[in-house]
Design a protein that fits this description.
alpha+beta, 5-stranded mixed β-sheet, elongated
Length: 426
């Protein structure tokens, strides 16, 4: 019975090391829960195989289990998954062999020390491969400092083993050394697990900051367009005076000056075509921008923004909300025959709520992937999802709710947002 528990501990540690290795280097294909279930199933299977006490069988099945886990749970090609599986198997085997030839007989210390060395080497490999994969980005060499944690642990374990092999220790001290070794290994796994978690959160925070900066720049751009529209309105207001000037030049027979005057008016940026899609100036500018993009891609663009329904929303929130909604709709509707995008806002009668609805053509159900989450066609999948997060953040700010679903019959994607109108605006 004690040996069974020790074997379970051994395979559990190996599973944790594999999960950290894969999560650091590769892009997941499945959700975290599915990956953990798959990992537990494979390593419990390895535990059952180990009961046959066949070294060759155990080695082959360990390699096969790692390969199956990597190829099914991460976005890897078969050669890459096989390469990393062989590497993990080789390192694990060498670590166990190195400790096996040392003259001590405590099975638990043998397991802990060999896995600690295994973990240390794997961490070095993780850092090396991560730098190679991200060589076009700035490298984070601060992670190398964590190398001293497993290195110090190995030195402590060597001290424990030397003390244990003297044969002059009491049973109480033996138990103490064993417990210290277990806590030492747990500390290593916890430190590196927290480091992996913090790096992931920092990357998400950085991506969100970049997205917010982009939205701020977009809001500034739309404000510039608003200024241009104001200049256009001023020009239209002054058109009568321009016509009077042209009339005076015509009476004097100065045709060249008339031609130059008209040409100057024609090339003026203030005369660029504009549309009136809603009463809110900023939102009107945003919608006009997307209407032009839809026109270039031959996507029908329909708008029904009821007067006064979104005036209480701050300009930067309007930019963030409608910019991300229309970006996603435009991405989904591209290259679809007779595609369309419909945007509408309306107030629910006798309630303090407005409803924003976006319906767009979509060839494939974006929820049909194994994770059940929204899929993307963007080249860099790691940057996917921040637009939705920004939308949810804005909706939450106004005590709202968002619902998204796909209609298989009409091949359309629906986004319905309900936002509560502040008391002072009702």
């Amino acid at each position: 019975m004690p040996n069974i528990v020790i074997y379970l501990l051994s395979f559990g540690i190996e599973g944790v090391i594999l999960y950290q290795y894969a999560s650091t280097l590769f892009t997941p294909r499945r959700r975290t829960g599915i990956r953990l279930v798959c990992l537990c199933f494979l390593y419990f299977f390895l535990f059952a195989i180990s009961m046959f006490h066949s070294t060759w069988l155990n080695t082959f099945m360990y390699l096969l289990a790692n390969f199956v886990f990597l190829i099914t749970q991460y976005r890897l090609s078969m050669p890459s998954a096989l390469l990393h599986s062989v590497l993990l198997t080789a390192i694990m085997g060498i670590c166990e062999l190195t400790i096996f030839i040392t003259p001590f007989h405590n099975m638990l210390l043998f397991i802990i020390f060999s896995k600690l060395i295994f973990f240390t080497i794997i961490y070095i490999c993780m850092h090396f491969f991560k730098d190679r994969r991200e060589q076009d980005q700035r490298r984070d060499h601060s992670a190398l400092l964590l190398f001293f944690v497993p290195l110090t642990s190995i030195l402590i374990m060597l001290t424990f083993l030397t003390l244990y092999n003297t044969g002059d220790i009491s049973p109480v001290l033996t138990v103490s050394i064993t417990l210290d070794a277990i806590f030492l290994l747990a500390t290593n796994l916890l430190v590196f697990g927290m480091n992996l978690y913090n790096r992931k959160k920092n990357m998400e925070f950085t991506e969100m900051q970049l997205l917010l900066q982009k939205e701020a720049n977009t809001a500034e751009y739309y404000q510039m367009l608003l200024s241009q529209n104001e200049n256009q309105n001023i020009l239209i207001h002054d058109i009568k005076k321009h016509l009077q000037s042209i009339h005076l030049l015509n009476e004097k027979g100065e045709q060249d000056k008339i031609s130059a005057y008209i040409q100057q008016l024609m090339i003026s940026s203030d005369l660029k075509e504009t549309s009136r899609l809603c009463s809110n100036e900023l939102l009107n500018t945003i919608l006009c921008q997307y209407k032009r993009q839809c026109g270039k891609k031959r996507i029908a663009f329909h708008v029904d923004i009821r007067h006064g329904t979104i005036d209480f929303i701050a300009d930067i929130d309007l930019t963030s909300l409608f910019g991300n909604l229309l970006d996603n709709a435009l991405e989904a509707a591209c290259s679809i025959p007779e595609a369309f995008i419909e945007v509408s806002t309306a107030r629910r009668i006798h309630t303090p709520f407005i409803v924003i609805t976006v319906i767009n053509s979509c060839r494939k159900n974006p929820f049909s992937n194994p994770q059940g989450s929204l899929s993307t066609h963007k080249p860099d999948r790691r940057r996917h999802g921040f637009g939705i997060k920004s939308i949810r953040k804005t909706v939450s700010k106004y005590q709202g709710d968002i619902k998204m679903y796909y209609n298989d019959d009409t091949l359309t994607f629906h986004t319905i947002i309900t936002i509560k109108i502040p008391k002072e605006e009702r």
